[in-house]
Amino acid sequence: MNKGRLGALALLIVAPLLIGAGLLVFHDQSVSDDGPAPPPRPDTMGVVTGTAATAAGAPVRDAAVLVRPLDEPAPAVPEIGVRTGDAGRYEWRLPPGRYEIVVRADSRDSAPRTATVTAGAVTRLDFTLP
Amino acid sequence: MSPTPSTVIRLQILLAAGLTAVLTSTAVAPAAAATTTGTPASTAASGTVAKPDAHGAVADSGAVPAAAASTALRGTDSTRGAGSPGGAGNGKAGPGGLRSDAGFARTPDNRTSPGIQSVIGTDNRVRVNPTTVYPSSAIVQIVRTTNGSTWGCTGWLYGPSIIATAGHCVHPGGGANGGGGNGFYPRGDFQIIPGRNGAATPYGTCTATQLLSVTNWTQSGDETNDYGAIRLSCAAGNTTGWFGLWWQSATLTGTATTVSGYPCDKPFGEQWRHAGQTVQVTHDRQVFYQNDTFGCQSGSPVYQTRAAGSAFCTGQCVMAIHAYGVHGSAPHSTNNHGTRITESVFNNLITWRNS
Which of A83, B137, B206, B255 gives a 20 to 30 Å CA spacing to B42? Predict the structure, then answer.
């Protein structure tokens, strides 16, 4: 068998292998909660949580909790939004990094605070609004 | 050099293994075809061959809708505006469709205030009031309240009882556990409010009966697969109308974009819109644009008004699902961006709706 034929044969063999491997790698299986739960994995995100209150200690509900990444390049923060609940509580899930956080209610802003978010960790940050 | 007989046998085994790999990988793809009114992709203008979905549709319940596969659709979908089933997005045209600033790349804001990274340059959003005019009526506010904290997102009706949104609005992604079925957020924590206008809820409030996404988001956390859907307890779309959607293989760069949603920097429940922009960059799975957005606008429709006779979709037609403000490097750092409605995204959305 000459080299040309060998090359063609090798291509015939390798191409399906590469295509098959590619499809296997990039295809995902469907799952549902009827089946086994996905195995727990280390969380790649961190959580910043806390409360917003007035100087008198009353909870500030329905206030926007605004975050701004301080790192460059900025991590991908989904454009979800977080607001405080009835007890003034909030919770942000964020990629690791440094953020400036402000709570805004009725055009009143809290003083900005900086949070350093670590994967799998919870950072507590409370705010007081004027 | 001639191969020895044993060499030939080895080569035959390798060939068989390769073919087996191809057949296996095809076999694990979702096999059930969607029963839709679309046209087989083989006839689509793009000329692409229909291929099985490569995302892995998942739900927060056991009932995972069968994915469209061998009879994948081209980007024509029966859409309607307010009131008439089966028609093509025939509601009143919004301000979309303006085409300006093509190729004009403005620089991101200097970030002097938290959360404004997705308002690019001057804030050009305008309040939508009233919201009972289609297609504004078909845009929904999503509110999730879990453990005393509230999250906001946006979605858009594309059927009587289903909305599309960002994947991160229904599942934390990347294998994280949102606390509900199959790692999704708890469906009972959701409220979906079509056409909300401040305190007014002209179409009532719906709840979620199923949350849907794909494993490339739920397990892999892949930003380019960040999309999902929520099946509703109500049939608000019959009153509000719903959006059309389409995919195309050709670039979207230069085409008109409007983004409208429920941003969290405004009074909660107000809908705000930025029209008159164009797609700046098109990637295989993402679309980049200059329309101003803000937190809580994830899931907003990136849409345009397409004239009668347009290919694939006419009326109010969605090309992408907004998901991210600026971050990282260009074009992500200079444009807001969303998950592009590709053939596979389109097929999943339609399959979810029709199942």
Answer: B255
CA–CA separation, B178 and B304 (whole Å): 33
**Structural domain count, chain A:** 1
Number of helices (H) and strands (E) in chain A: give both, helices first.
1, 9
The shortest CB-CB distance from B182 to any of A6, A9, A37 is to A37
The CA distances from residue A54 to A34, A108, A127, B320, in Å, are 45, 11, 8, 41
The residues that bridge with B145 in the sheet, in sequence order, are B150
Tell me the helices (H) and strands (E) count for chain B, helix number first.
4, 15
pLDDT digits (tens, 9 = 90+) for B115-124: 445 777 788 8
Identity of the highest mean pLDDT range in B59-63, B105-109, B210-214, B252-256:
B252-256
At residue A36, the pLDDT reads 53
Beta-carbon separation of A112 and B114 below 8 A: yes
- Is residue A34 within 8 A of residue B34, CB to CB? The reply is no
Q: Name residues whose C-beta falls within 8 Å of residue A56's C-beta, 6 or more positions apart in sequence.
A: none
Asked whether residue A55 is assigned to any structural domain, the reply reads: yes
All residues of chain A having their beta carbon less than 8 Å from the beta carbon of residue B289 are none
For residues B128 and B260, give the distance between their C-alpha atoms in angstroms, rounded to a whole number: 8
B337 assigned to active site: no
Mean pLDDT of B320-348: 93
Q: What percent of chain B has pLDDT over 90?
A: 58
Hey, is the C-beta of A66 within 8 angstroms of any chain B C-beta?
yes
Residues B159, B289, A98: CA angle, nearest 5 degrees: 100
Is the C-alpha dihedral spanning B335, A120, B265, B232 positive or negative? positive
The pair of structure tokens assigned to B85 is 């089933």
DSSP H or E segment with residue B258: strand B256-261
Complex prediction ipTM: 0.78
Domains and CATH numbers, chain B: 7-355 (2.40.10.10)
- Is the Cβ pair A13, B14 closer than 8 Å? yes
Token duo for residue B96: 């979309």
Q: Which domain holds residue A120?
A: 46-129
Strand bridging mode B256-261 / B271-282: antiparallel
Distances in whole angstroms, Cα of residue B283 to Cα of each of A110, A112, B249: 39, 36, 11
Q: Using alpha carbons only, give the angle A33, B143, B227 rounded to the nearest 5 degrees.
A: 55
Peptide bond into B267 cis (omega under 30): no
pLDDT for res B106: 25
Residue ranges of A 108-127 with Cβ closer than 8 A to chain B: 112
The CATH number assigned to the domain holding A63 equals: 2.60.40.1120
